[in-house]
Amino acid sequence: MITSLLCLAFPLLLIYAAWHDVSTMTIPNWVSIVLAVTFIPAALTAGLSLEEIGWHLLFGAAVLIVCAVLFYLNVFGGGDAKVIAAASLWTGLAGSAPFVMGMAIAGGLLAGLLIMLRRMNIQTTKAWLARLLSPEEGAPYAVAIAAGALLAAPASPVLAVGLATLSV
Fold first, then answer.
1. For the chain, what is the total number of helices (H) and then of strands (E)?
2. pLDDT 10s digits, 19-63
3. Where in the sequence is the domain holding 90, given as residue range(s)?
4. Domain count, the chain
5. Which residues does 89 contact at the CB level (< 8 Å), separation at least 6?
6. Are 36 and 67 in contact (CB under 8 A)?
7. Between the CA of residue 124 and those of 107, 116, 130, 143, 147, what are the distances in Å?
8. Confidence class of residue 95 from pLDDT cuts 50, 70 and 90?
9. Burial class (CB in 10 A: 0-12, 13-18, 19+), 60
């Protein structure tokens, strides 16, 4: 039961990050911090060994380094880099392929949708929507990050236990 409650942080924080990114084009730092910090008690209650937790932490650190380089190269924002790394703690290496694939597909669909909407020249008085529809703005990539991470959740040993105990 405790594992299930801790595992709820994963989808809830990712959905919040996506919503916040859509509405403000930012992802608060506390989202990535809570996502990362919650991983350890979730992993412990899910029964992962210290060695397995260490591998997840090492993988998350490696992802953070790669994402920091991509941020430096202006591929995506700093908030995106931190959320990807924090979510990677949960998915681990086992869930990395569905995470990256789901994120890439969702990112492509998001980009296509934004391109179509931005070409329609929609006028709005809502500031967040005007920003989202502006061709000068980027894309709220936390939407794609959340989609990829949620798609990868069943491959995560921590989330698999959390889902199993939830259905019991």
1. 9, 0
2. 999 999 999 999 999 999 999 999 999 999 999 999 999 999 999
3. 2-167
4. 1
5. 35, 36, 39, 56, 57, 59, 60
6. no
7. 24, 16, 6, 22, 27
8. very high
9. buried
